[in-house]
Amino acid sequence: MGRDAALTVEQLAAEAGLPTSTIRMYQTRGLLHPPRREGRTARYDSSHVERLGLVNRLQQRGFSLPAIAELIAARDLGARVGDVLGLTGQGGPDDWVPVGMRELRALVSVRDLRPQLFRRASRMGLIRWERGKPFVRRWAMDSGTAMTGMAMPPREILDAFERLRVQTDRIAADFVDVFERVIWPRLADQAGSDDQLDRVRALLVELTETAQGVVAGALRDSIRDSAETFARKHNLLPEDRPPAWAGHTVPVLAERLEGAAAHPDEPADADIDRFLAEADAEETP
């Protein structure tokens, strides 16, 4: 497709495999640059198709729409495409990345690095095994490194994640319930519509973004309140000024295995034992 191609919004949507409502939503959020105007008709070209492909790739890497908008703005100001896509630096938070013994020992002491730890982390979905090698989500690696730096034992970290996952499952079920009760009935009445599946997908993407923002904001408030309660309990707060607690966003859900197949293997005891034995052999002079 040439740069001077003139596509209507319907043609652009068909080319990108998206509903027109998503195209308009991307424009509103600054993810898609404005089209050329011919009278009252908007005309799009190959640059818009390329931009939609970039947005899709970044979503698959685990970036939220607001984060993608910032990355695109940075690229438009001169950042390299590879940097924006995470090809030359750190990628998306939900990428599955291979982990070696060196990285594991930065997370877990030699004393705690046992097969049962691998089994539990695998059952919890924190580790995936491909061809006898472990893969870990980047956000899990980063979070685990941070908590290890605070001298938290691995068992405590896994216990905390297990409790957290119960809560996040409940939150997800609540949002899905809202979708099913409020939004789905309107879509179900349009069962014969050609773009029904695309509309459902677009609405689920938007609901995910909304849910992420709500959960992140509520979590920041809860952490702020809990931290202040803790500080008051231990007489850590100054009397003349309020504390300033910084908040952090949470990762979105997506999956991408770097150098691995789409369907992970079930970790066998032999895989874990072999991985540990090979790692020990590599470090033996």
Automatic annotation (TrEMBL):
SUPFAM superfamilies (UniProt xref): Putative DNA-binding domain (SSF46955)
A GO MF term: DNA-binding transcription factor activity
**Residue stretches of biased makeup (Basic and acidic residues):** 257-277
Q: Which residues form the HTH merR-type domain?
A: 6-74
InterPro entries linked to this entry? DNA-bd_dom_put_sf (IPR009061), MerR-type_HTH_dom (IPR000551), MerR_fam (IPR047057)
Region annotated Disordered, chain positions: 257-285
Which keywords does the record carry? DNA-binding
Name-wise, this protein is MerR HTH family regulatory protein
